[in-house]
Fold this sequence. Notes:
Elements: H1 2-20, E1 24-30, E2 36-43, E3 48-55, E4 59-64, E5 70-75, E6 81-87, E7 92-97, E8 106-108, H2 111-122, H3 124-129, H4 132-145, H5 150-159, H6 166-174, H7 182-188, H8 190-198, E9 205-209, E10 214-217, E11 224-230, H9 238-251, E12 256-262, H10 267-275, E13 282-285, E14 305-310, E15 315-319, H11 322-333
Parallel strand pairs: 1-7, 11-12, 12-13
Antiparallel strand pairs: 1-4, 2-3, 2-5, 5-6, 7-8, 9-10, 9-13, 11-14, 14-15
Helix pairs in contact: 4-5, 9-11
Amino acid sequence: xxxxxxxxxxxxxxxxxxxxxxxxxxxxxxxxxxxxxxxxxxxxxxxxxxxxxxxxxxxxxxxxxxxxxxxxxxxxxxxxxxxxxxxxxxxxxxxxxxxxxxxxxxxxxxxxxxxxxxxxxxxxxxxxxxxxxxxxxxxxxxxxxxxxxxxxxxxxxxxxxxxxxxxxxxxxxxxxxxxxxxxxxxxxxxxxxxxxxxxxxxxxxxxxxxxxxxxxxxxxxxxxxxxxxxxxxxxxxxxxxxxxxxxxxxxxxxxxxxxxxxxxxxxxxxxxxxxxxxxxxxxxxxxxxxxxxxxxxxxxxxxxxxxxxxxxxxxxxxxxxxxxxxxxxxxxxxxx
Length: 336
């Protein structure tokens, strides 16, 4: 009988161990004790998972599955970014902080997350202020000094401002192959994602306008189409100011149509911003941000993201560089 019980216990322990290794756990603690729904988004080769989970009295827990390393993005109830962390099956990782301070979260549960958390903490003020020139420099320095670290890949693919730039591609090549897990490159490397997305034709899609009405945007109606996706309504967003200035000049051409699409759920600030805007093009909004069903296939990466497409829907440029946008538009409009 004892032998039978011993075998049964051994089987039970093995079964429980097997179950724990087939999923991961994320546990979050909010110092301000909030109660609200949070959105967790992560991808595996099989699918993209987007799951709403309530945080109650400052506590939240997600159980998911990913046999390889994946990055989990966490958003608040208004779909505003809070933090990100890396995890795979068999791991329990943690995050803690205040919901009003997205760049102040502390990560734990694995050495890699602790290193990521330390980097964000060391550069906290620059990330919080959105000073990408400084955060990019910090990332470049880290990669240069740590080419063997997986964190170098995470920082480049998740926190670098323009993964499409030649500099970003140089940095990617400088990272050791063993520090570039395919799961991270394929799922979160914008370079690879953009190459895949650019091969897809831009098709007509519906989006809400300033009057909150659904309207159809159809690339066939225009010789050159510019879709500008933005998030920050602050006047301190110098990159947006520079992009808008360039788009104003391009929109003066009759053959060019510009449509800006707001991917922040704070529509009150959006209304105030576009009301006082002097641009001539029309404004639209994606109510659920980057994951709005109508634009999900466009794989919009970050903010101040631009797509240029011709009348056939062929995407000729995807990225953040206003000068490259100008070149792509000219390639279309200068054709005889």
